[in-house]
Amino acid sequence: MQAGDELAGRYRLAGLLGHGAMGEVWRATDLNLERDVAVKVITANWIGEAMKEALARFRREGKAAARLNHPCIADVYDLGDHQGKPFLVLELLTGPDLATLLRRHPDGLPVKQALEYGAQAAEGLAVAHAAGIVHRDVKPSNLILDRQGTVKVCDFGIARLDGATAGLTGTGTALGTPNYMSPEQARAEAVTAASDVYGLGATLFHLLTGQVVFHCEDVLSVLYQHVNQLPPAASDLRARIPAAVDAYLRALLAKSPADRPSTDAIASRLRTLSITSCDATALLAEAEDRARTITDPDHKAHVLRETAAALVRIDLSQARAVLAEAERIARSITSSPYNRARALRKIAGVLAEIDPAQAEDLARSITDPYNQARALSKIAEALAGTDPGRALVAVGEAERIARTFTEFQRNRQEEILGEIAAALTRIDPGRARALLAEAERIAHGLNTTDIHETIGRALARIDPAAAEHFARTYTDSHYGQARVLQAVAKVLAETDPSRAQAVLGEAARNTPKPDHVIFADVLRNIAGVMAGINPDWARSMLAKTEPALRGHTDAYTQALKLGEFAEVLALLDPGRARVVLAEAEYLARTINTTTTPHNQMRALRKIAVVLCRIDPAQAEQLARTIPDPYNQARGLVSIAREITK
């Protein structure tokens, strides 16, 4: 072929755009329609019946591809022959392909951009798969950008021909493009839409990291690894790739086709990951920066620990780094040994989700027995699902510490026994029940509502009837009993909504004064649990509490209570919740900042967190108006955590 040749008397070749084992791609002019097009001419010299079948399939699939119509698929205009050589006439795309972009960004594209390109490619593939067409060669060079920057999937129909002919080894094994090839293709087995999903996963991995999934000098080693080796974590190759993105890449690259996501679900999932993970990452980076301007070490360690806890879902390596900084700062707290121990205990609780062994070491370094025991019970809870034996060791240590407490520390002993029992519910229900029985005996002599709630929640996971009975024996006050019943019902709602509704009804009957602020708080919490079970009942219950919440005379308390009211209302009526939050914000801004500056900032933070459930962008804007770095950073962290749920 040379410039000036006319194919089928219609397409005049103008210049060579590229070539490969299969053939050549030319820029050409459609003489009939007077427009520029791309022409792919198959120039390989083939012989034998297999080649005839491959050509017939090429023509058949070329016609099918021509019927595809989607913004993310390069248009196929025509199919023809020139001197016995088949050709396809395609939409001319002048933008770079993604392989070219990777050469410009050797460490990978920006995460958000890579995910969006992956989503657009998935949209195109989903349309093709719905029409029964499998691409078979998804890779960066087959994804080309148009003038608007939209990805176009190219070369439908060519890939199968390539795999069946020019990609044959001496042993007859189909190769295609090894770096992006699914295990079933590498084994020369049947190729389905799931094979394209794997190719898209391998492409996305390359876009995010700048590296192919498996890098070897020879093709057979690459194929072997696609079949037999688990892919590396993308975040190991490039820091700050969100953990949720890592997890989804593993799903796309699953060895079994049946374990990969359906193509029609991929675009939506990638965009969700882009919005939540990337926006949350930016918010958390901003929170880190604000935290480092805080002078009080207790507050600074608190914010960094909360930031790390949110990062666990997004970026494990960064979460670990932030926790290390939080621990260093916590150890510098001199205001109170107890405050230092409490800060270290909470850091150990987060660290348990990342590195249990390191968390255990940290817990054992805490000198305050109460905080050390609570840290060990939290670690045991984190280990219960993955390493029950190790969890039992941590539980044993926590229990031994709890039993050293004196008669005057019975409330602390009860609290720790309840937390230990909660950790044991999944691995040793019998022992958990025995510990809860002991905690119950202590609790009846203390009448401490918070600890009763802890016991009630743990007991509800083992023996719901016993949990209800325990709640009813709390006779300190109607208010306290209702709170414990509500805590039990919240656990029951996960598995038995009808039973939870009955318990919540009983709790509501135990709060006879909805116009009293204390009872109104309980009823509001009951309505929050009921919102997912019986919205009409919840709406009615919530309405009864509103007058009491508006009865406060000081702006700070009323702003907080309206924010709490709006938090439940957002589950039932987001539009009205937004109005209530606007009222709460107005009240918060009237708080006297001369005498109580922290009250205003605390109220604005809490309002921003609730607003995030309705309008994340407006919530961010509100959080950034908070001048205090402690409350602003905590607000940003809470918003990040909310949008990644």
Structure, explained:
The chain is an alpha+beta fold and 645 residues long. Among the domains are: 6-90, Phosphorylase Kinase, domain 1, CATH 3.30.200; 98-272, Transferase(Phosphotransferase) domain 1 (Transferase(Phosphotransferase), domain 1, Orthogonal Bundle); 550-645. It is 61% helix and 7% strand. The protein has helices spanning 49-66, 98-104, 111-130, 158-164, 183-186, 193-209, 219-228, 234-237, 243-252, 263-291, 297-311, 316-330, 337-351, 356-364, 369-383, 388-402, 410-424, 429-444, 449-462, 464-472, 478-492, 497-509, 517-530, 535-549, 555-572, 574-588, 597-612, 616-623, 629-643; strands at residues 6-7, 11-19, 23-30, 35-42, 76-82, 85-90, 143-145, 151-153. It has a 6-stranded antiparallel β-sheet, covered by helices on one side. A two-stranded antiparallel ribbon has the order 7-8. Helix 10 packs antiparallel against helix 29 (629-643), helix 19 (449-462) packs parallel to helix 21 and helix 25 (555-572) runs parallel beside helix 27 (597-612). Residues 159-175 have low confidence and may be disordered.
Give the tags.
alpha+beta, 645 residues, six-stranded antiparallel beta sheet, Transferase(Phosphotransferase), domain 1, 61% helix
